Amino acid sequence: MPAFSISDSLTATALVMVAFGVGALVFVGFRQARTGLARRARLEPATAGSLSGPARSTAFSGLFGGVRRLGGRTEGQDPTQVSALRNKLMQAGFTSREAVAYYLGVRSIALIAATAATLMLLPLAFSHTGMSAIVAAGFFGLLAVLGPDQVIKMRRKSREREYRDGFPDLLDLLVASVQAGLSLDAAVSRIGEELGNRYPNLSDHLLLMTLELRAGRARKEAWSRLAERLGIDEARSFATMLRQAEDMGTSLGETLSAFSEDMRAKRILRAEELASSLPAKLMLPLILFIFPCLMGVLILPAAIHISQAFKH
Asked: Which one of 89, 163, 304, 309 is CB 3.0 to 4.6 Å from 99, fit for a cystine?
């Protein structure tokens, strides 16, 4: 009988592990989908007609439910870490109560998929394409570990940019509305509708704060929660200013005007800072792309004339 080499043994072991993992995932997914179907059948009355649409939606709800339960099992017990993660997800636009569980479930599935891909690439590590397999396995591992965090970070940065651009406009409209005779709560409700086209995410947060105020939440707490959701220093400073103005009984219109002027000055300073950093940022593209083309345009004609002179 021919002896098995190390590569054949590793290949067989990897195939067995991958098959076992895929089978386990299929079994768990099937059980979650069946549980979701049974729960939906108990909670909803049976309806006549086509069942393709409800069945498809139930399958998706079962899949999302499985992801949420997987994230709930991997969720840490430290409440401070869970609270910090919830704040990050809220600042990235995920305001659901189950956002932490879904995020942890997606991270777990990404790690499982990266592990399966690494096991499938493991036999290739002992062949002539070993280095490529190792690089691909490392790429999958980094993508699984850092990918979800990078997605959240990119969404947070894009939303923070929108919030910083729209907050001075919000303050200007707020000052105009208060000076026109509207109350602060009515002005916020009106401004939330006006900013919907230009700053849709900021408008959503303002409308959410309006609903909180109508539900009976205190104004100071509502503005503090808005600052936590936005995650920018301007909103935190504004919430602190409103709290101090309400505690000390100062004029709200004058306070808003002073804060609005300060925010406008900060926006001008930020624009000047970006403009002053533009030459440094253009240095590398100029050296890499424009300077070689310019040198080619200037030197090539002289080089052609010199080569023709040497030929004659």
From this structure: 89
